[in-house]
Amino acid sequence: MSEASASEMEASWGFIRLQRASGVAILTLARPASRNSLSDGMMADVSGALTELADDASVRAIVLDAEGPVFSAGHDLKEIQAHRSDNDRGRTYFESVLARCSALMTQIVRQPQPVIAAVEGMATAAGCQLVASCDLAVAGAGARFCTPGVNIGLFCHTPMVALSRSVGRKHAMEMLLLGEWVEAPEAHRMGLVNRIAPAGEARSLALELAQKIASKSRVPVKLGKAAFYTQAEMGLDDAYAYASRVMAENMMARDADEGISAVIGKRTPQWEDR
């Protein structure tokens, strides 16, 4: 999908931009002046856009990117500190904002379409959590990642959840305990990102991957994404039993019949998404 075609169906929200074209949606964090922090407004807009896209059968994959030199700096610390003067010193707000952030990350995992992060610049704290929560991630060569909470007396507890499910435990603990920058090549080696693009081209590569996904039948992609995360939390025997049930269900789909018939007939399958 070209940049020109992507602009055909663009909608502006308060904190994001949303574009649709050729089976792919691009959701752009659009508050570079605030380092695309996950403020109350940003989280509400991203969640609202994902909800809208979940019901859009024409959208088969989603690319999540950002304007400016920072992908996302995590929570809006000024917004958080403003609640220190509350009667409970901010506890109610802190619990609320963390619950809403956790709900957003879970929403990404449960989104029917695969979500691909396209990261240029820095992704820190909950911004790194956002990348780790996506199904795939592409990083520009200059991208950097960090969970720096420990440096300001605040362990990155909630980013830890997504990070520990995305990379190995030793890698996750190193990031969480040291709070140091991880450059794009190391993030790739750790498994935090899938591909590295030349600086400034993460979005283009993410769109290329999204288009490949969009060319598949919607049925196995939707079933497969949900099944992947469900079985990952199970023991081995339960995971195989569950995966077998889901695969049998998938085999009953019209597109599975069509796909197998196309292989046997040595022709290109014609998907109907059912």
UniProtKB/TrEMBL annotation:
Top-rank taxon, per record: Bacteria
Pfam (any one): ECH_1
Keywords linked to the UniProt accession: Fatty acid metabolism, Lipid metabolism, Transit peptide
One BP annotation, GO: fatty acid metabolic process
CDD domains: crotonase-like
InterPro entries recorded: ClpP/crotonase-like_dom_sf, Enoyl-CoA_hydra/iso, Enoyl-CoA_hydra_C, Mitochondrial_ECH-domain
MF term (GO), any: hydro-lyase activity
Cross-referenced Gene3D superfamilies: 2-enoyl-CoA Hydratase, Chain A, domain 1 (3.90.226.10), Lyase 2-enoyl-coa Hydratase, Chain A, domain 2 (1.10.12.10)
Family: Belongs to the enoyl-CoA hydratase/isomerase family.
Biological function: May play a role in fatty acid biosynthesis and insulin sensitivity.
NCBIfam families in alphabetical order: PRK08139.1 (NF006008)
Record-given protein name: Enoyl-CoA hydratase domain-containing protein 3, mitochondrial
